[in-house]
Amino acid sequence: MKNKLAGILICVMMLVTILPITALATTIASEPQTTAGGLLGHTTVHGFVLFKRTSDGGKTVHFFAIRLHYSTISVSGERSSGIIRMEPIEIPSSINGYLGHLYIFGSFRGWFNP
Questions:
Q1: 38-73, pLDDT tens digit by residue?
Q2: Entry pTM
Q3: CB neighbours (10 Å) of residue 49?
């Protein structure tokens, strides 16, 4: 009886966490908010992402950031860093590092504007 109750509890908890994430898939395609631009500067990103897709002939990558840490430095020395949670993001596909379907870790040229 305890095993059956524990199984039902786990299923309910999984449904509660998975359903809101799948509902966000429709809003990702409609409005990307973050862009990276310019050739002067360097950005490092790492974090958990979902729904990775490419556009512009493979020049940019769009995904939904669950929790993404970023650190940007410009040629003039201006630094910017922070954490992005639950937002659609767009970055260049010429990233040096790992760009997987669930995790991203790497750096690219350009200024990251969250």
A1: 456 888 889 998 888 888 787 888 888 889 898 888
A2: 0.58
A3: 22
- Residue 88 has phi, psi (to 5 degrees) of -75, 140
| Tally of residues, the chain | 114
What SS3 class is residue 70? Answer: strand
Average pLDDT, the chain: 75
**Around Cβ 84, how many Cβ atoms within 10 Å?**
19
Of residues 26 and 106, the one with the higher pLDDT is 106
Paired tokens of 50: 């979902």
Closest listed residue to residue 47, CA positions, set 110, 95, 111, 13: 95
β-sheet with 103-113: strand ranges across: 79-92, 60-73, 35-55, 103-113, 96-99
Residue with the two structure tokens 């929790």: 67
- Contact between residue 75 and residue 55 where contact means Cβ atoms under 8 Å apart: no
